[in-house]
Every structure is written in structure tokens, then in C-alpha cells.
Specification:
220 residues; mainly alpha; 2 domains; 72% helix; 0% strand; DNA-binding transcription factor activity; HTH_TetR; DNA-binding; PsrA_TetR_C; Homeodomain-like_sf
Length: 220
């Protein structure tokens, strides 16, 4: 669990112009949706930014909603796979804790920033914050892992009702994406108070906060 976090935003690997059309469209949509919001961006704007034509947009996605879904699933699938690996490791250790589960929750999202996914994290934060209709797709995608987190946390804290654990997980999700969705702004705000944190230090602080959300019995 030692992958670092940076504010790199350029996609790794080959230049965008060499990518398949569907990938160019997704990357263009990521940038525009992050800058302006999903509802403020037309398919024509995405097409223009990607250097694609109308026919290719409709061939690959068919609609803007389908493009949004593909965009969310592409990096969301990577987050889910990484979380599954971390949860498998935690289960294999036989010694789960709120801290290791918090790290399994936060780190896969943070790693997307290092992999050029800053815009994607910003988009998801906006969807959660605005209760955009695409939120249902995010919650559906997270549901299988939410059940794993709930089961593991229930074993650690048997006195905590499942509904309380699920509530805490939704708050952890909101906090994680809101904090990482505009990492530079967060660090700038901290700097105003004389606190300077590296991206990795921000991630560790966030893991501490999520640990506090997940841990312990209800105070009532």
C-alpha cells in the first residue's frame, strides 16, 4: 500500500492523438465536464475537443448519457479492482481494522490522480455534491464493495448496526471525493493558515479522517 500521490493530470502512455476515437472522446469529456459541469457541456463540444465527428460519437456511445456512463465506468472499474485487491489482502491477513479499511477506501481514488484521473475525481465529486442523476450509476457500481466493507466493519464492531455502517460509508465517499476533487484548492486553503502539506500528506490526513468516520460504536 505504498503508491504515491501526485497532481499530475496528463494521461500516461501514448499521446491522445494516437488513442482510439472512443478514448479521445472520453478524455475530452473528462476535461470539459470537470471544467464546466456535465450539464453545461454538449456532445458537439466534446466532439470538437476530441477532434472527432458526429458519426463517431453516436457510433461509440449513442448518447451523452451513455458517454457519461462509459466515462464513470472506465476509471471507476480501476478503482473497484484496486479496492478489491486491498480488501482481499485485508481479509487474508485475518486482522482487519478501521485504519486498513479506510486506506482501502481512500487510496484507490487518490491513485487515480497520480494516473492522470484528476478530472474524473472532480467529476465524481460534482455528481455527489449536486445529486446529479449519474449518482445512481456511481452508487450501483460501489454496492458490491459496500457490502464487503459493511461485513468487515460489522465483524470489527459487532455492536454497530449495518444501517449505521452504510451511513458512515456514504459520508466517507462524499468526504474522499470532495477532498481529492480539488486537491490544489484544498492545499491552497491550508497554506493560508500556514499549513503546507504534500499530496501524500493530504492523503494520509484523509485516511485518518475516514478512519474516524468508520471506527467505533455509535455515541448514543
Amino acid at each position: 500500500m505504498s503508491r504515491g500521490l501526485s497532481t499530475e493530470t496528463a494521461p500516461a502512455g501514448q499521446p491522445e492523438t494516437a488513442l482510439p476515437t472512443d478514448q479521445r472522446l472520453i478524455l475530452a469529456a473528462e476535461r470539459l465536464f470537470a471544467e464546466r459541469g456535465i450539464d453545461a457541456v454538449s456532445l458537439r463540444a466534446v466532439m470538437s475537443a476530441a477532434g472527432a465527428n458526429v458519426a463517431s460519437v453516436h457510433y461509440h456511445f449513442g448518447s451523452k448519457d451513455a458517454l457519461v456512463e462509459a466515462l464513470l465506468e472506465q476509471r471507476g472499474g480501476q478503482v473497484s479492482q484496486r479496492r478489491a485487491e486491498l480488501l482481499d489482502s485485508i481479509e487474508a491477513s485475518g486482522d482487519p481494522s478501521a485504519r486498513t479499511l479506510a486506506e482501502a477506501f481512500v487510496r484507490p481514488v487518490a491513485e487515480q490522480i497520480a494516473a492522470g484521473g484528476t478530472a474524473w475525481v472532480t467529476i465524481v465529486a460534482g455528481i455527489i455534491g449536486s445529486r446529479h442523476p449519474a449518482l445512481s450509476r456511481i452508487t450501483e457500481g460501489f454496492a458490491p464493495q459496500a457490502r464487503r466493507f459493511t461485513s468487515l466493519l460489522g465483524a470489527i464492531y459487532p455492536g454497530v448496526p449495518a444501517r449505521t455502517i452504510r451511513f458512515r460509508l456514504t459520508q466517507a465517499m462524499s468526504l474522499t471525493f470532495q477532498a481529492l476533487g480539488d486537491l490544489d484548492a484544498l492545499r491552497d486553503m491550508l497554506a493560508l493558515s500556514g499549513t503546507r502539506l504534500s499530496p501524500d500528506e493530504v492523503m494520509e490526513e484523509l485516511i485518518d479522517m475516514v478512519t474516524a468516520i468508520l471506527a467505533g460504536p455509535p455515541d448514543r
